[in-house]
Amino acid sequence: MPQPGTGLPPMRTVLEYPYTRTTGPVMGAFLTGIRDGRLLGGRIGERVVCPPLEYEPGTGAPAGLDLVDLGPGGTVSSWTWVREPTATHPFRHPFAFALIVPDGASSGFPHVVDAGSPERMSTGMRVTARFKEQRRGSITDLWFVPEEDGARAAPPVEGGDPVTLAEQPVSLTYVEPYHPHRVRFLNGLLEGVITGQRSPVTGKVYVPGRGYDHLERTLMTEEHDVAVSGRGSVSSFTEITPVQYHGQKETEPYIRASILLDGSDSPITGVDIRTIPLSEFRVGLRLRAVWRPAGERDVSAFDNRSTGGWEGVIERWEPTGEPDADSRALEEHAF
Amino acid sequence: MARPCAVVGIGQTDYRRRLEVSLEGLVRWAALEALEDAGLTFADIDAVVIGKAPDLLEGVMMPELSLADALGAVGKPIHRVHTAGSVGAATAISGVTMVESGRYDRVLVVCYEKQSEGNATWALSGGKSGGQGAGGTFAPWIRSYIRRSGAPEHIGWQVAVKDRRNALRNPHAHLRIPDISVEKVKESPMLWEPLHFLESCPSSDGAAAVVLASEDVARKGPAKPAWVVAHAKRSEYASFPGRDPVRPRAGVECAEALYRKAGVTDPLRQIDCAELYVPFSWYEPMWLEGHLLAAPGEGWKLTDSGATELGGSFPVNPSGGVLSSNPIGASGLVRCLEAARQVRGTAGEHQVEGAKVALGHAYGGAAQYFAMWLVSSELQPAFA
Amino acid sequence: MSTNPRPVAVVATSLTPAYTAFEGPEAALVMTCVNELLESTGLRREELEFTIAGSCDYLGGTPFSFVMNLEGVGAWPPVYESHVEMDGAWALSEAWLRLQCGDVDTALVVGSGRASSGRPREVFALQTDPYTMAPLGADPVSLAGLQARALLDSGKATEADFAAAAARALPATSGVSIEELLKADYWCDPLRAHDVAAPADGAAALILVAGDRARELPGEPVWLTGMDHRIESHHLGLRDLTDSPSARLAAKGAGAHDGPVDIAELMVVHSPEETILRTALGLGGETVINPSGGPLAGNPVMATGLARVVEVVRRIAAGEARRGLAHASSGPCLQQNLVAVLEGEH
């Protein structure tokens, strides 16, 4: 959905990573129990706590591993009915979060109850654990139901090694409109114009504008926008040998450069260079932008920060053939 | 005026991939060791400070909440510092402030990173493809330094070898490369020109902890205290016209403030050794110059002369440094506590003989955040 | 521990509106606040010897969000600066301690956040135990629902009490009664939508000055006479959710009851928390609670706690109160609580 009046859809970022958590002996034993269809607590002094802990609650003193089988029944000590589940809740339909004291435990822990309706929930009600058929040893391998729905033995799973690793995929979506100065900058790019902002105090031109001059502590608006040249000098570069990680699409080495455009006082950064050999690339090299055709420009890789996204609008940067700029003078723009 | 503050307990994990412990287990390892060293238990601690790099590294937001019980903080103040790569040293300084303020007598400072739970390059790129990694940011400045100073190319290799040799004396170090050599370093893959693979820091897991205490408590403790005689922090913007990213003014002013506070007038002579935050080999000569230990253009000569080796006149990173172990959020605290170990005389195989005054340092972001402390075996060392 | 802290005053405050969605970078919010502080005090940026900010990477989904924010905070020439990944109220705590050391006399404190781009319930679920709670998406609203239910079951509060706290956040002109609020549908039973503060974008900032210098500046100094913060267990089953021992300890540590408390700004993000905090903080009928409307009227995440301090300071400076308490919290079910005590000059 485009932002009103801008033609640009809001920017969308998905922060997604499959974290792998080593469990240590105590949490590992708890999760192994879940994998095997058991709910375990830890005896610490007079108390039996669920999940078991590596330490004495309250003091942090080390606690030995003394596991106790709990449940599968338990008692609800508090609950809330979640009418609008979030994307990270275990159910897509309404359910209860509850503090559940498993039979045999001296205190409760938060988990979910799939009760169908809030009328079936009450403090003090009895619940029983249900285990998924496929279990790898995660807190999400089980859930609770009202006891009247019937106890059900955990479906057997192939026994296996103790659980030592808990996988936690995290995926968070962020959507925000482009900031007003970014909208003007990006719309300029779609028209083949690079827009900066000229400080009303010092006259220095920042590209792209950030909506302020941080040196002079002055906010900048549309009246400070200026078009800058599509030519400039390499102020800094690095050759990236891509390391592989979740979401990484790059596989081959390439150059990432910063270019000080003519008439500006801050370099554009995150410019990927794939058509000029590393051996010919250097600070001071004069380049000009070769724009993509008007209908093929895409600004979706730009975010609200300053770096990157240029390849969507500029097909490549090519040497102008002019003599190099003074590399020493460019050092202050090495970012 | 500020009350004196001392390091009275030190703890750290090994910095290899710690696959046998939970997050809680990791931080408790360091915390319990520091408490034991100080002859204290969690019950004796007045306040806890934790520090680490971005939460995205482990996918745990505001971990002071879920770690409060494990760190014995229930019923106490706990707060979380985050200042990019400098965070370990910044967290230590935050703890020192608490003691100096007169409000707290025993403060537990814990920093950690468990890089094996996630991926640092992913996290530092905000989950986007094409992350350039920290080395990609620093490489251009390193090239500028080389051009500016006229340093020969072997300097970087030499630092990489020296720190890895030192690491062989430190049982906590992550990288242990017994046959490390200049040839091996320069033949390792080029990651970011001019930085080779072996000129770069590893991805480590680990936690570090110190117990900081007031003078009364320190004097009663079982172990020899390391007195925090001065600390300083400075920050500047990541980029702006006119910035010198090779020798950032914030780094120079941070060092000036530190030496002024301590009464140090000739740091290279009056300080016995330093643990500098050197994640990429060339940053040793760069920080020697950037923190006024050497004149501009002279830092690499100091390195080249062997002065910064263990046994040299000014050993740098006797522990093996960040080049040998990099649990990011803890790395700055490791520098600070290794400086403290030196002046307590408890650095074991990598002890600098007779060290009385030592510098712990960290930097972060785009070489824009600086945090340093100076520790001494004496409460008020006299600098001649 | 010493009992007589060095006198430190808040000499200027700034607070942006709580924007549903601010059109611009967080650094611009911060810059606006800092510029306003400098203008009102006549101080130059360089005269602020120590700077500390509070913000959160996950809130806006970018690592090192404080590095960008630094551009609003101001860091050229270089500054002596730090950052907590916490509400700005905890930044204030460190600044206050820093000024206690005696060698620094002025401090700039900032809290800022942009909550509008993420889905805060999903984001804040990552605050919970990474093995047993976060995988369930245990979000702050649901967990506040558990706390609310525990309160009802204990007889310490009724749903009408929740609605009364929510009603206080509404503009006086709204004319909405408690009865009408109670007719609204549940959201996370027993919570209704109006019981939950909507996360917003915004920033708060203030300047602290120690000793006599505070009196040399324009305006009425408001003295920060005490501060403390405490945490309790993360394990909800091990806590009495109807009480807040950490808030009680913080109030004691801050010296809240060394004098009468005329006003209190409490970080009530879920309306039932007001009942718990009133009791734990020992606030009786003589204390006006949340005269600003509190977070239910405006919740600029990561600045909400510091904004409570700003609201108390402004009312004391305006002569509406002589002595007040500001409270901030962090974590599910009020896990962590901070108290600052502020007093007027006369």
UniProtKB/TrEMBL annotation, chain A:
InterPro entries listed in its UniProt record: ChsH2_C (IPR002878), NA-bd_OB-fold (IPR012340), Thioester_dehydratase-like (IPR052513)
Signal peptide: none
Residue span, ChsH2 C-terminal OB-fold domain: 226-292
Record field: transmembrane: none
Domain of life: Bacteria
Protein name: OB-fold nucleic acid binding domain-containing protein
Organism of origin: Actinocorallia aurantiaca
Automatic annotation (TrEMBL), chain B:
TM region positions: none
Gene3D superfamilies: 3.40.47.10
InterPro entries from the UniProt entry: Thiolase, Thiolase-like, Thiolase_C_2
The organism's place on the tree of life at top rank: Bacteria
SUPFAM superfamilies noted in UniProt: Thiolase-like
Domain Thiolase C-terminal: 246-369
Protein name as catalogued: Thiolase domain-containing protein
UniProtKB/TrEMBL annotation, chain C:
Protein name: Thiolase domain-containing protein
UniProt organism field: Actinocorallia aurantiaca
